[in-house]
Amino acid sequence: MIPISELHIFHIYLLSWLIILVILWVRQEMRQKKAYDWSVVKERLYFCDNCHLSFLSQHDSENVTRCPRCNELCFIRKRKRF
User: Fold this and answer.
1) Helix (H) or strand (E) holding 26
2) Most exposed among 38, 51, 69, 82, judged by the fewest C-beta atoms under 10 Å?
3) What's the distance, Cα to Cα, between the start and end of the chain in Å?
4) pTM confidence score
């Protein structure tokens, strides 16, 4: 057998836990970045005629979405560009 002291085993144990924690932390940061990657643009701004709430849509390609407050259908209004 290879002789390993108890101090070395303890250091290896601590180092392995540190590596696992860093990997989990990086993974969580990457997941949160994807989940909250918002960009504020007028094309994603909706206005509910029923409850007068302005909100951003979660999806770029939709023209219709539901209001988070009253669950009413809301449409993007096409604005004329000057």
Assistant:
1) helix 6-35
2) 82
3) 82
4) 0.43
Alpha-carbon torsion angle 12, 13, 19, 21, nearest 10: -160
Q: How far apart are CA 78 and CA 43, in angstroms?
A: 9
- The torsion defined by the Cα of 12, 18, 23 and 28, in degrees rounded to 10, comes to 160
Give pLDDT tens digits for 28-76: 988 887 666 666 666 677 888 889 888 887 766 667 888 889 988 887 7
Sign (positive or negative) of CA dihedral 15, 18, 23, 24: positive
- 80: tokens are 């004329």
Spatial separation of the C-alpha atoms in residues 55 and 38, rounded to whole Å = 12
Cα 14 from chain centre:
31
The one-letter amino acid at 6: E
Where do the DSSP E strands lie in the chain?
45-47, 54-56, 64-66, 73-75
